[in-house]
Amino acid sequence: MEPIIHIENVHKWFGSVHALQGINLDILKGQVVVVIGPSGSGKSTLLRCINRLEEFDEGKIVVDGIPLDTAQNINAVRTEVGMVFQSFNLFPHLKVLDNVLLAQRVVRKRDKVESENKARMLLQKVGIPDKADYYPLQLSGGQQQRVAIARALAMDPKIMLFDEPTSALDPEMIQEVLDVMTDLAREGMTMVVVSHEMGFARAAADRAILMDSGQIIEEAPPDILFTHPTQERTKAFLSKIL
Ligand code: ADP
Ligand code: MG
Hints:
It is built from nine helices and ten strands. It is globular. The site of magnesium ion (MG) has 3 residues, from helix 1.
């Protein structure tokens, strides 16, 4: 089977910082991959290269058969890849419903009725159908993050990227966001998730990857990576977070 994400020998420098040092990774359609690793190891940079929020300096990335090279291809890939950030990045001056509507109208050119129906369906899906007319700052962090997920899903992405989606949340709100992500994983969404939530990884992920110093150090199914890591750097990292 052709991978839906193909990453081949990707290098990225920020000035003299070699943030990605030859990353190779193939992800199949429907796979859920959790990426863990110390701060500064290149996790966010890797995610951002997949939808070309960040340019890479060497190597090749192909998403759903489209190489990230020309401007046209980059735009095509961006519309297929949804991203959810640690800081929810909602538009504070727009109501929840309009946050979920906007890109559908502008990018997908859907009419008002169709985009509103879709937005309401997605707010239902993430468990906050009653919050459509609220402004983001009237919601809890967990609710805002669920709006951000609904907004990304409104574009009908083939791939969802999550960069520490629960790191900014109070502990009691983490699970409601992880539950939405777990449902999405079970429905067959291809997902790459930077998160140290072991419970989520065990429940929802097919693969877990440990990154350090811009490299993939080790990969295994989550249960195995967490309980029987083979690399010293994985053991050292896990001993700090478990
Ligand atoms: P992680 O998400 O694992 O914490 P990042 O991908 O954010 O790591 O960062 C990897 C490395 O690249 C770090 O050394 C970081 O300081 C550096 N870096 C990331 N983004 C930038 C940037 N925009 N400018 C300069 N250096 C950056
Ligand atoms: Mg990061």
